[in-house]
Write a structure and sequence with these properties.
heterodimer, A: 157 residues, alpha+beta, 8 strands, B: 89 residues, 3 helices
């Protein structure tokens, strides 16, 4: 059974269901950690629209999940990501990791969301009352990815 | 000796699609194109604005559905997507 589940959704995510699907599946796991990213209400936001690159996006997410699985000896990984049009408060991404112990699970989830921000092919478009524009990556996101990649290289060396 | 035509399917994604005014282009070149920079130069020769957009250092490449470093090698039959920086999660 594939320990990695990657799914792109064009309808609303159900993080509670997706988390429930991970709990209790693996007898060797004492810990499941998870993350939900949701659309933040910011000035002028009417809707957020996410685009992906079919084929390439799934492959990139699978690689991120596989890197995490190997590095933290995860028993199960799930990444669910929404595309299409969303409003404030809607979940955009759900990530879960199951491991023997909690430190691995927590770190793996942190790694996956940080790296996904800059290494997963998605593009956000912000819709306001006056029109819409594409969102650029934040410098903090680039720094977070770099920090994880350095840490993984150091640990694996 | 053999047919050296290189045929590539190019995809332009998100903001680059808006900028170039198209999402896809099939490029057929009788001259050898060995990497993504050759592709950008080929486009720039015909459309300087498009070439400048694709040449920007922030542009990401996805070759045959795999993120590729730049410059990326290209081969006949490849699909090469030019993308803006990612903003997911």
């Amino acid at each position: 059974m594939d320990p990695i589940l990657i799914r792109i959704h064009d309808t609303p995510l159900s993080p509670a269901q997706e988390l429930a699907a991970v709990i209790g599946r693996d007898g060797g796991c004492g810990a499941i950690a998870s993350f939900v990213g949701q659309v933040r209400q910011e000035d002028g936001l009417v809707a957020l629209e996410l685009e992906h690159y079919p084929g390439g996006t799934e492959a990139a997410l699978r690689e991120i999940a596989e890197n995490a699985r190997v590095h933290w000896s995860l028993k199960r990984v799930a990444i669910h990501h929404r595309v299409g049009r969303m409003e404030a408060g809607e979940p955009i991404v759900f990530i879960a990791a199951a491991a023997a112990h909690r430190r691995a699970a927590f770190e793996a989830v942190g790694y996956m969301i940080d790296v996904l921000k800059t290494q997963a092919p998605f593009w956000k478009r912000l819709h306001t009352a006056d029109g819409s524009h594409w969102i650029e990556t934040r410098p903090d996101d680039e720094a977070a990815t770099s920090a994880w990649l350095t840490e993984l290289q150091n640990k694996d060396a | 000796m053999g047919d050296r035509t290189v045929k590539l399917t190019l995809h332009f994604v998100a903001a680059l699609r808006d900028r170039l005014g198209r999402s896809e282009m099939v490029l057929e070149s009788p001259e050898p194109l060995t990497d993504s920079e050759d592709v950008v130069a080929w486009i720039a020769a015909r459309d300087p604005d498009a070439g400048a957009a694709l040449a920007h250092q922030s542009v990401r490449l996805i070759r045959n559905n795999q993120i590729a470093p730049r410059p990326a090698p290209v081969a006949d039959g490849d699909t090469l997507a030019f993308c803006p920086p990612f903003s997911g999660g």
